[in-house]
Design a protein that fits this description.
17% of the residues lie in helices and 31% in strands. It is α+β, with helices and mostly antiparallel strands and 264 residues long.
């Protein structure tokens, strides 16, 4: 019996073009028995922060040994490294641009490899615009086939893997951050963890508004704005039965501040 491994895919390719399908074709040529799971291909173009958020929130739901392939790669063709990482729970394959920093901030990197061995690429002369097909997809498939990480390239210091793509920071009266993700419902997910507001009375200042922290959507009337901790564990801004992005005219990377009650 052939033992199948899980390989997840995440990208900003969308579903209009053949890019996702072709990437899956490359994987199938190497191992057609891999179980492919699409996390999403609707990451906004070149938005590394959004990809980081989605990967971080999906990672813990998959069994040990899963290979996670992520391609949101605005630096393709530059000097940024192509990498594969081994963690306790599984493997990460993609560009070294911070896309894995959400996962690696919570999970230790056991081994980090720069993908320098063309024997495991689709071609020894990869495209300068699409490493997803030529390098990342075949490498992920080979990992799923049982190829050891060390065979794929040169070992690098895990501490050199890109981690800093913007953090929140404490202020005199609260915490300042930015919008790291906007979901399908228009909810604005900040990069401020729930731990900052636990057991506190708090509000959010964003787009010239002050929005009180609540426990649930139903704490305000339909159509009103609220701030709360989402199921993912981050402070978010929402509209009860509405779309916060549209109503508040807030976008990716826009700033916000959490203030504690005495400052609201």
């Amino acid at each position: 019996m052939i033992r199948s491994k899980i390989l997840t895919l995440l990208s900003d390719f969308g579903d209009k073009d053949v890019y996702v399908g072709v990437m899956k074709g490359v994987i199938a040529q190497i191992n057609p028995y891999l179980i492919l799971i699409d996390l999403t291909h609707q990451i906004p173009a070149q938005n590394i922060a959004a990809a980081r958020f989605c990967l971080m929130n999906a990672y813990d739901y998959f069994p040990k040994g899963t290979v996670h392939l992520a391609v949101v790669d605005p630096g393709v063709g530059s000097q940024r490294r192509a990498i594969a990482l081994k963690l306790e729970q599984g493997y990460l394959v993609g560009p070294d641009n911070g896309i894995f920093s959400g996962i690696t901030s919570k999970n230790q990197i056991i081994t980090a490899i720069e993908l320098t061995n063309p024997n495991f690429w689709r071609t020894s002369e990869p495209s300068s615009t699409f490493n997803g097909i030529d390098i990342f997809a075949p490498v992920a498939a080979h990992l799923g086939n049982g190829v050891s990480l060390q065979e794929l390239g040169t070992e690098i210091n895990p501490e050199t893997v890109v981690m800093d793509i913007g953090e929140c920071w404490e202020t005199t009266n609260g915490v300042t951050g930015y919008i790291q993700y906007i979901d399908h419902f228009g909810n604005l997910v900040s990069n401020i963890p729930a731990s900052y507001v636990k057991d506190k009375n708090w509000c959010v200042q964003i787009a010239g508004l002050t929005i009180l922290g609540c426990a649930a959507y139903s704490d305000v009337e339909i159509g009103e704005a609220l701030a709360l901790v989402g199921s993912h564990g981050w402070v978010e801004i929402a509209i009860n039965s509405g779309n916060a992005q549209i109503k508040l005219q807030v976008n990716w990377q826009d700033g916000l501040e959490v203030l504690f009650l005495q400052s609201c």
